[in-house]
# Entry
Amino acid sequence: MSDVRSTISEQPTDEMLVTNVLEGNTGMFGMLVRRYEQKLLRYGRRFMSGLEDIEDVVQEVFLRAYQNLRSFDRKRRFSPWIYRIAHNAFVNEMRRATRHPTVEFNADLLLPHRVQDSPENDHDRAEMREFLRKGLDTLDDKYREPLILYYFEEMSYAEISDILHIPVSTVGVRINRGRTALRKILGTNTSL
Amino acid sequence: MNTQSIDQEILEKIEQQRLTMRSRRDLAVHRAWLIAAVVSCALFMVFLASFMLYALHRTGVLYLPLFGSRAIAYLLHPFSWFTGSLFFGGPVLVIIIGILVGRKARLYRMPLLYVWLILGTSFLAIGALVFMSPLHGALQSRRLPVLGALYNAATCSTETNTATGIVRESSADGFKLVTLSKKMVPVRLVSSTIIERGYSVHDNDAVIVIGRMSQSVLVAELVHRSPPALSAEEERELRNIDLNESFFESR
# Structure
């Protein structure tokens, strides 16, 4: 057990790997790809359900990440940075596939919102994930993505704000509204 | 595509130099462009804000609140097309700057209204400082080719509704107003005209008049002693203009 722990603690962080790659050890980029490949595929499948070629889009995300690696601010976390690239790639892909522009401005970006972040235990979160699996496709895009990032990718509000480039309070309000919408869609009385 | 091969494929591309990182020079140029764009927009916004204050000051609109609540309705009414476009163009620029700066400074984490208010207030505050400096007065007095026309358009075209100038040939039912652009505007006082409390119109007074043009006569609705829209030198110059001069009529 202790060996496992030490192995885990000795794993280089994403930011360390980026530093290595930037110092010339480009092979380390493969490790980053392996770490994020499944996560981004899962994120893409949930975000763009119904669209094919998600693997190609994810590969494109890694290509762009490598090309722009020098612009990554190593004082920040790597994961929101690569998810941001993925978000942009997925949005572009959806625009291309559906041939209509995605409206990114919403009134909820304008004003501050008071969000009561009710603490959820593991059971609540697992239950919510189950509801999301059932009803995710029926949700509006603007609610779907924050919910995916929050419940499946386990991002904080601030990280979601960094990925979607929307105010932190808007993240909170969209997650709450998304939960309410999901409850209505599934017609359940369960407190989500 | 086999998902397990993504990392191999990418590493292969890197090894074969088919995939390269953007160079430091590339990124530095991109950053420099961004900074230049933000600085240019910000400088332009400061100029715009100070110019707007200057135009409002010269036309007297800035001092409309002196007339009390009645003048509120006139606040938008007497704007020239130019001042109006400044008011609408300014916020658009603030939004553009917000977008440019936001990416680097994480401004997107705040509600847009806060970002716009912070940027707008900052530009207005710095613009007020520039407005108080002699910059605009100096620029206008130089009568530069394009800028000169711009200054004239912004500061002298609202006389259909407001006029600031010197009272000449005053009588019980009106006076002649020699305006900043050295035009002579006949002003008629009517029973509904509101004159600043405790003030009676005298020759050579500097006043601001708000009213409506009717057959080349400005029917005054509000008359107030002029706030410092006119410099002492301008006041002196306007007082000394001979009303019978032929050039005056032709303007």
In short: Residues 61 and 89 of chain A are 7 Å apart (CA to CA). Residues 1-8 of chain A have pLDDT under 50 and may be disordered.
